[in-house]
Amino acid sequence: MGTANASPSNALGDPAQSLQTFNLLDLQRYTQEKAYSTTASKDFHLFYVGRDDVHDILKHVLSRVSVSLYLNMFGFDDEELNNILMAKVADPQVIMLITLDKSQAGSVHEKRLLQSDAAKDPIAFNTHFVIGQSATHQISHTKGFVADGRVGGEGSTNWSASGEGTFIVTGRAGGAGYKAQNNTQTIFTDPDTISRFQAELIAEHMAAQAQRTATLKRESGSQGRSPNKSAE
After folding, report:
1. What is the pLDDT of residues 35-93, one digit of tens each?
2. 46 sits in which H/E element
3. What pTM did the predictor assign?
4. Which terminal residue of the chain has fewer beta carbons within 10 Å of its beta carbon, N or C?
């Protein structure tokens, strides 16, 4: 398993860094202005891909997870974020529920999660993965998480270099070859939204799991049926 790249925003491996004292002000350094307005909300902030350093914002939060992570992500192609997730998956002290969309599950990073030791032994690692769709069999398009029951994130941001507008010039957007989609990323801490969003992520996970269970039952029944006897 690879290790996440060391950087100021990536606290992986530093037990002194956690979300237990997290404040949205911790993320103002990643905005274009390097500071929030005096009228900014204390429990909700909207960041903009192509303007703010969304890649480092996601690293800052996810690398500091120490208790739990509930995540539903519609595909991702970010090696550093994937390495952070793999490190958390390998830590049995962190409870994780990960939901992946069925149509996206064949990509490199999803495969790494699904082929991990944790996927094969979810009880030992306190981690459960499932691939599926929405309750009405549409794509599972949520792109969000609740970390440690304290910090939530949601938005249109895809976990990829252009989806996050990953900086190639230190401290600012732009530079030769820089690419950024039009996306937004929220980070929020108000308890009501955290509670409701975590419940929604669990519900989406359970819907996908129910589909998986139904599929396995159908496959089992098909394999057990005699090839010379038609179904009644």
Report:
1. 999 999 999 999 999 999 999 999 999 999 999 999 998 767 788 998 999 899 889 99
2. strand 44-48
3. 0.85
4. C
Contacts for 158 with CB less than 8 Å, ≥ 6 apart:
74, 75, 76, 77, 143, 164, 181, 183
Residues in the chain: 232
Rounded to 5 degrees, what are φ and ψ at 97? -125, 115
Residue 119: burial class (beta carbons within 10 Å; 0-12, 13-18, 19+)? middle
Residues of the chain with pLDDT under 50: 1-3, 229-232
DSSP 221: H
Which one, of 58, 125, 60, 67, lies nearest residue 94 by Cα?
A: 67
Cα distance between residue 190 and residue 204, in whole Å: 21
The pLDDT, as a whole number, for residue 42 is: 97
Q: Rounded to whole angstroms, how far apart are CA atoms 103 and 132?
A: 8
Between vectors from CA 66 to CA 65 and to CA 71, what angle results, nearest 5°? 45
> What single-letter amino acid sits at 132?
G
